[in-house]
Specification:
The chain is an alpha+beta fold and 577 residues long. The chain has twelve helices and 22 strands. A hairpin with a 6-residue loop joins strand 7 and strand 8. The chain is extended, with a radius of gyration of 37 Å.
Length: 577
């Protein structure tokens, strides 16, 4: 008897029913051993393990499971067997194609597992029974072998794109919008008519650019490398109610057509937005050898070919007999886009960098080794990270080395500050402070050197933040100084400046008063004290004008109300002049 011919009073199950107890039992209890039986809390369903399966995954609601099963009464009388048909049956779990108890059991099984389920009447054929085979209110047994299953996912959550995973992919990464994918697919109508098919070697495109129909990029974003799937696509995610005329080598597609698309994600090349604004893109051609990237301050060795967008080569390093390029990242030794992208690369990584003029050579013409780069040119580098040596981290250094490194970084920051490179100077001061951090345990003599370095790095960092209009960061750094040196006039002076820029005139006044109490003749503090008085006067003037306007508006409203009341009084026969 076919699976679909079960009693009509047995309804399908929903997600809540299926997840309620069997899953909890399996998760909270140790795995069953062969020959062991366990009862689930759900309506007395029992499972006895006859043969262990493989792996750790189990099918879920919506999946299509290929199974063999034999149904029998409690006295052993067999009433149904798929084994007599030789071929296993496919069951859509959660669709009510088999009794609830059998569906509950399947989601606890592993691939290749064989189990015996004892199913109470309420999860089997209920009060109606099943014809002459199963009496009313009868418990039954099912011996089930889970051969395999296909994961089925509703990608659009409205049934518009259903994906059946035919073969799992490798790894855990899926393509993003910027990535370049290589896919092979075959699209057909429900009657089998093929309407689109790629060459055997597949076709390459960027996910964000889309391809063929809206369902394709949506589905590709969910796939892994090597994954094969079948998509069932409703018209709203294909070609809609209008269909599509034949064009560009594609066949026509009738209106309101459902498509079946067999698709394989052969590979993809990740594209990283290095700067976050699309102006420096890194497309990875070959992954690097380790998990560690060069990062800022590393000495890197790279080979590359640099081209204009039209393919003109304007520079080569490390190819065709030329020497590789060695430079230190984040030191402005190369153009900004190349610098920032290379800092993200791993040893052995190969990538294509596409760099906007803002991070390239800008709006000027530049003569390079092999060609001239015109103004405002986007440029492309095909680059390989040959090697890099990272800057030693603070924890890798002795205390004396930390102090020396902090001194060097501070001096580098000072040089950058003098030439107006405030952002880079700030990073140098930050590194200097990290080397002599409060978390480091210094000896007494070492601390006499480390503490002044730390304080001066914070103060200089605050000066950079003020220049960069990052007033909150300036407040933070000055407050760090004042936590350890409450009498530090420079910290009070710079924090007062930040407060004034943030219109917190009260806090600025407090810091200025403290600074003058410590050094009453400090010229810089006196200058901002004068500026503060001007700001307060302007603020008071604005406030007075605001209150005057508010008061005038209030008087006007009150006058209108009085006039309305007078008019209402005249209308009721009261005397008026």
């Amino acid at each position: 008897m076919a699976v679909e011919e079960k009693a009509t009073d047995v309804s399908g199950i929903d997600d809540d029913d299926l997840d309620e107890e069997p899953g909890e039992e399996i998760e909270s209890a140790p795995p069953l051993k062969v020959g062991e039986e366990r009862e689930f809390a759900t309506y007395g369903l029992k499972k006895k393990l006859l043969k262990s399966g493989t792996g750790w995954e189990s099918p879920e609601v919506g999946d299509e499971a290929a199974v063999h099963y034999v149904g029998s009464l409690m006295d052993g009388t067999k009433f149904e067997s798929t084994r007599e048909r030789e071929e296993p049956v496919t069951v859509k779990i959660g669709e009510g194609e088999v009794v609830k108890g059998l569906e509950h059991g399947m989601v606890t099984m592993k691939k290749g597992e064989v189990a015996l389920f004892t199913v109470p009447a309420e999860l089997a054929y209920g009060v109606a029974g099943r014809g002459d085979d199963v009496p009313p209110n009868a418990a039954v047994r099912f011996e089930v072998e889970l051969i395999s299953w296909i994961r089925v996912v509703d990608l659009s959550r409205d049934g518009g794109i259903v994906k059946k995973i035919l073969e799992k992919g490798k790894g855990s990464e899926s393509p993003g919008d910027l990535d370049q994918v290589l896919v092979k697919y075959r699209a057909a109508l429900v009657d089998g008519t093929v309407v689109a098919e790629t060459p055997e070697e597949g076709i390459e495109f960027y996910v964000k650019d889309g391809h063929f129909c809206p369902a394709l990029p949506k589905s590709i974003r969910t796939m892994k490398r090597g994954e094969k799937a079948r998509l069932i696509v409703q018209p709203q995610y294909a070609f809609g109610e209008e269909g599509r005329d034949a064009n560009n080598g594609f066949q026509s597609i009738p209106p309101a057509s459902v498509l079946n698309i067999d698709i394989e994600l052969m590979s993809f090349k990740p594209v990283i937005d290095v700067t976050g604004d699309g102006k420096v893109l890194k497309k990875i051609l070959k992954e690097g050898e380790s998990t560690s990237s060069a990062h800022e301050g590393a000495t890197v060795t790279v080979s590359y070919i640099a081209r204009l967008e039209d393919g003109t080569v304007f520079e080569k390093r490390g190819v065709d007999g030329s020497q590789p390029l060695e430079f230190i990242t984040d030191e402005e030794q190369v153009i900004a886009g190349f610098d920032r992208a290379v800092a993200t690369m791993k040893k052995g990584e190969q990538a294509i960098l596409t760099i906007h003029p803002d991070f390239g050579f800008g709006s000027v013409e530049v003569r390079r080794d092999l060609a001239v780069v015109p103004p405002s040119s986007s440029i492309v580098f095909e680059v390989e990270m040959l090697d890099f040596i990272k800057e030693r981290a603070p924890w890798e250094l002795s205390n004396q080395e930390k102090i020396e490194a902090a001194g060097r970084k501070k001096e580098e920051g000072n040089l950058l500050f003098k030439i107006g490179k405030y952002h880079r100077a700030g990073k140098k001061y930050e590194k200097a402070a990290d080397y002599v951090s409060e978390d480091v345990i210094f000896g007494d003599d070492e601390l006499k050197l480390a503490k002044p370095l730390r304080v001066s790095s914070w103060l200089n960092g605050a000066a950079c933040s003020l220049k960069l209009n990052d007033f909150q960061e300036a407040l933070k750094l000055c407050s760090k100084v004042l936590d350890v040196e409450f009498h530090n006039v420079k910290a009070l002076y710079r924090r007062a400046q930040a407060y004034m820029e943030l219109s917190d005139l009260f806090s600025a006044e407090l810091d200025i008063k403290k600074a003058l109490e410590i050094d009453s003749q400090n010229r810089e503090v006196k200058v901002i004290e004068k500026k503060l008085k001007q700001l307060k006067a302007e603020s008071n003037k604005r406030d007075a004008k605001l209150y005057t306007n508010m008061f005038a508006k209030k008087l006007k409203v009150e006058k209108v109300e009085i006039e309305k009341q007078d008019e209402a009084g005249c209308g009721h026969g009261n005397s008026c002049c």
